[in-house]
Specification:
This protein is an alpha+beta fold and 169 residues long. 27% of the residues lie in helices and 36% in strands. Helix 1 packs across helix 2.
């Protein structure tokens, strides 16, 4: 996808993914916002043990060097590397399988059952349809190609039941 003068996001994704995976991290998402001198490239990485500040610094140094040498973003930009956070976006089809059972909010481009926003538990991905168990127990199948955005939500009820909220854990 071309994002303005000389910036090809697909090419940036490929280069960043290669660096991130070589260091045994997962590339979760990339965002490129702004124009000209106000560009910000955000890279979200993850791994099973979680992400530390030193992980972000390592990836930032490596990605920054390669992007500058390759001149993939011809204007100046700010590079930010972080974990995807508790409300991470689900980007890949495999994310819907990985986070099956998690609470999520799904926004669609087209209305389904007269609405575009759904909240419920992810119940996997089958035949390019995301299955969501809504709060009322109804199972909804959402074609992956009509999903605008899916974000995980913190399941405070489960966290409270586990006793991990409010104890610094």
């Amino acid at each position: 996808m071309l994002l303005g003068i000389g910036v090809e996001l697909d090419q940036i994704w490929q280069v960043v993914e290669e660096i991130v995976e070589a260091e045994n991290y997962e590339l979760v998402d990339i965002e490129l916002t702004g124009v000209d001198l106000d560009r910000v490239l955000r890279i979200f990485i993850d791994r099973s043990e979680g992400i530390s500040h030193s992980d972000c610094r390592l990836i930032s140094q490596q990605v920054g060097t390669v992007l500058d040498v390759e001149n993939l973003i011809p204007s100046s930009y700010t590079l930010e590397v972080s974990s995807p956070g508790l409300d991470r976006r689900l980007v890949k089809e495999s994310d819907y399988v990985r986070f099956e059972g998690s609470l999520a909010k799904v926004r669609t481009t087209l209305p389904l059952n007269n609405q575009k926003v759904f909240r419920g538990r992810l119940r996997g991905l089958h035949e390019h349809k995301v299955h969501i168990e809504l709060d009322d127990g109804q199972l909804l199948e959402v074609p992956i190609d009509v999903i605008k955005e899916t974000r995980l939500e913190v399941d405070w009820q489960s966290e409270m039941a586990r006793g991990s909220v409010g104890r610094g854990q």
